């Protein structure tokens, strides 16, 4: 993800105030008195931007109900001057709240996290049926306990170079698994799938080739 420019931070500063007290490094739950407090927590406060005292704080609490007693509490130094020393009492330093910037990208970041988690789900059980659906974005290993002969539908959400493994278990008798010819291709080493022995599992490995628009069947290992 690209690093945001300074302009992006400045454009999203909702609060800017003069500090009226010092940050106390010890104890760690000291407070910063300001003339405004953020609406959403946790948030990040840059104190003394572009000065020798510049410090980035994470803020998890606030107190006060007017400009005379507003305070930011639950402070943790992320980086900067406050990690090694106290900000001087009464220092006239700016206090920039980057809350809006972080919130702006929160949904997008959560979406990326969801995608990563989906790729890391590992084993995904397919729903048994005549043509089981397979969403390649949900994992890497797909299991199917088949109560009859089945044909795997063309997998959705392919990406170039994506590898998937299909574990086909024959339930209640020998079962034959087929792969939809519109979405899968065999080579000369692996030319087809043979019936799976009752109660056993065959393992099929595939790689998606976007230039061909198909999943290449590259390996079959039988009877586990």
- Summed up, the domain count is 2
Question: Percent helix among the residues?
Answer: 10-25%
Biggest β-sheet, characterized?
Answer: 6 strands, antiparallel
Low-pLDDT windows of residues:
1-12
Backbone structural class: mainly beta
Q: How does the overall form come out from the CA principal axes?
A: rod-shaped
Number of strands: 14
Number of helices: 2
Strand line-up across the major sheet: 1-6-3-4-5-2
Q: How confident overall, as mean pLDDT?
A: 79
Order of helices and strands: HEEEEEEHEEEEEEEE
End-to-end C-alpha gap = 43 Å
Describe the structure.
This protein has 224 residues and is mainly β. It has two domains: 111 residues; 101 residues. The strands form three sheets. The protein has a six-stranded antiparallel β-sheet. The protein has a six-stranded mixed β-sheet with strand order 7-8-10-13-14-12, with no helix packed on it. A two-stranded parallel sheet has the order 9-11. β4 and β5 form a beta hairpin.
């Amino acid at each position: 993800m690209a690093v945001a420019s300074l302009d992006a931070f400045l454009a999203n500063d909702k609060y800017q105030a003069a500090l009226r007290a010092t940050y106390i490094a010890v104890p760690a739950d000291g407070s910063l008195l300001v003339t405004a407090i953020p609406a959403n927590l946790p948030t990040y406060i840059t104190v003394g931007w572009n000065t020798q005292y510049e410090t980035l704080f994470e803020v998890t609490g606030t107190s006060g109900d007017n400009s005379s007693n507003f305070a930011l509490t639950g402070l943790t130094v992320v980086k900067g001057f406050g990690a090694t020393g106290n900000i001087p009492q009464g220092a006239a330093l700016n206090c920039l709240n980057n809350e809006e910037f972080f919130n702006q990208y929160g949904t997008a970041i959560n979406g990326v996290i969801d995608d990563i988690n989906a790729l890391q789900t590992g084993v995904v059980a397919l729903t048994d049926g005549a043509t089981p659906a397979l969403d390649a974005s949900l994992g890497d290993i797909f299991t199917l306990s088949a109560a009859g002969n089945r044909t795997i539908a063309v997998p959705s959400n392919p990406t170039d170079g994506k590898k998937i493994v299909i574990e086909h278990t024959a339930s209640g008798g020998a079962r034959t698994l087929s792969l939809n010819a519109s979405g899968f291709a065999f080579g000369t080493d692996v030319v087809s799938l043979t019936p799976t022995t009752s109660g056993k599992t065959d393992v099929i490995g595939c790689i998606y080739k976007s230039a061909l628009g198909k999943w290449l069947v590259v390996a079959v290992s039988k009877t586990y």
